[in-house]
Structure prediction request, 417 residues.
Amino acid sequence: MSAREEDVLIIGGGVIGVCAAYYLAEAGRSVTLLERGELCSGSSYGNAGLVAVDHAIPTAAPGALSQGLRWMLDPGSPFYIKPRLEPDLVRWLWRFRAACREAPMRRAIPLLLELGRSSLALYQTLHRQHKLDDGFRHEGRLILFRSEQGMAHGREELALLGEYGVQGELLGTEEVKARMPLVQDDIVGGIYFRGYAHLEPAAFVRELGRVLEMKGVGIRRGVEVLDFETAGPRIERVVTTRGVLHPREVVLAAGVWSAPLARRLGLYLPIQAAKGYSITARRPDAMPELPLSLGEAKVAVTPMAGYLRFSSTLELNGFDMSINARRVEATRRALRTYLAGMEGLEELELWRGLRPMTPDSLPIIGRSEMYTNLVVATGHGMLGVTQGPITGKLVADLVSDATPALDPTPFRIERFS
Prediction:
């Protein structure tokens, strides 16, 4: 079978893939993007839609593993690891344990802040230039607490982030009610962070996809990558369900599916699938345009155009896409516990998706040392929307051998070697 020649081939049509395609096209490259379904049909679709700049304390932090082990006994907990003797999971947990120390956490915080701040600036430029219709707003985020213990933990995190220049506003009960009148009477306080924006993620990907097609990017939907053919240190051909392609450069940005695809190249990516749930409901008229976090319950609440999305849980359960009804109900219960008037919400969609989690909570962005024409961009965990534009810009810089927008060294694949 003859192979169709391509300049840059991107595998994956989520937020990372379309952002990479955009900045590569801006750099003058000819780009083809492959997506096995529709654009944004994976974890980019139903997430909280937050550009969470100030969400910079990594999941791998001191106490995270012990807390996760305790939560394993609670069927409604926000963090769950299904016990199983899979070598990849055991290896991942060992690396996660090593990252749950003070020094790695403090190395990660400024890196996550730099990624988030860079992305927010790029989002603002994208919306200014292209008038993307995705509900993008920079309103900040309010974290609510129902207990003094939860509030104390919030103060500790604010103090830690404050060492890196993050500013948050501590609010008492009445100050919280002034910003969010729907809170229940037992809310003891909150913290407002300015460094959050929000948008409707599927709309962003579709809108940027429209811009890409206007720029001449080839978006091939319904095309699944089956295998690769290599010659020495290069990927020569990509075998798909719609033919064989011969690319100069390959960008692997398939989210959680990047790991099994990389294995076909003999490349190990330490990624675990982390299932999350979201419920999208008709938005109450009294709901302000302010994203929330329900502190102790670890539930994100995001107002979007005409509806409300609340999302939660981090479930390490392999590629299992089944719905755990107890976890979903725990999310509903949390919403009613923190906010008044939520009992009769008209639910429109229950969604679950698999997020690509690395053991150190940092994404994998870099050119492979094994294959000179492969760039990998995955492992963003819960921050794919947050880090999408800067990841796309870094990918374009790496592919084009340009000076990178920021130092990509901490995100290289080989840090796990």
The chain has ten helices and 19 strands. The mean pLDDT is 95. The CA atoms of residues 266 and 319 lie 20 Å apart.
